[in-house]
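Following up on my earlier thread - several people asked me to post the actual chain instead of describing it. Fair enough. Here it is, all 290 residues.
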Amino acid sequence: MMLRRVLVVVVTLLIVGGGAFAAKSHSLESQRAVLLAQSKTAQSELTTTTARGGYLESLIAHHEGEQAELEAVLAVRAGFVSEVAALRDALAKAEGKIDTATYRAAAVGAQNTVIQEDEDPVVVTNATATIHALTAKVNEGLSTWEESQRRAAVADAPLWSSSGADGYARVRAALDHVGGGAVGLYESASCAGGTAPACANSNGYIKYRADVAGWDESRLNWAMAHELAHIYQFAVWGSLNSAPAYQSMFGSDPEFLANCMAVVRGYPGSVGCGHDQQVWASGIWVGSVR
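Reply from S.P.:
Thanks for posting it. Predicted structure:
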């Protein structure tokens, strides 16, 4: 009898405990459902945030790229502006002397291209090179015009004055004799302000002072050979001055080189010239710079 009561109590407890357990399980399941929903919400928000973060990163990278392109273009625009200023000065000097309309039109086209460009620095660099080339063309045209004016002035001037026709003829014969038959010759007291007896002009002619006409034949021939040598130096002036041998063998002195060139032609002056120097100097007579 006692045993049965105990069993009944145990069973009752189990029934009561089982109900509490079931209630607890239900509560946990509800909490689990809430947490799962919250987790999904958080995951959705994280996905959205990540996507937005990626978009923002992409947008920032895009703007940074645009900024870099703009800075690169701005960096080379300064050079373009400088070249335009140089062209403007050249055009001002050439105004009324040469036809500048074509150059101006080309410059305006290049300038419009640069104004519209904000991405590719190469476009600006190419336009800068175009302006530089236009400036060189304008300066070249201006130099040609100025040379024509000088030649006209020289053509109108007398070939001699105080040396007379006979003096001029003597100097002319000496220049022809040493190989300068095609070179212009004029009497002038302007060589080094009158301190030099003769000089060569880079435009291709030679001037002499009146007293040179009275020099003896040997000295006169040497003087004309020396000045003629300068004419040939002018023909290779750029490469001559950049030649290491010119510096090492002649100290970059055109007068010393002219003396050696005269020696090569058979007209030695008062300054000596070694064998190797003569060999090198001989190349200038044929337009060769070694």
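The chain has a mean pLDDT of 82. That should answer part of your original question.
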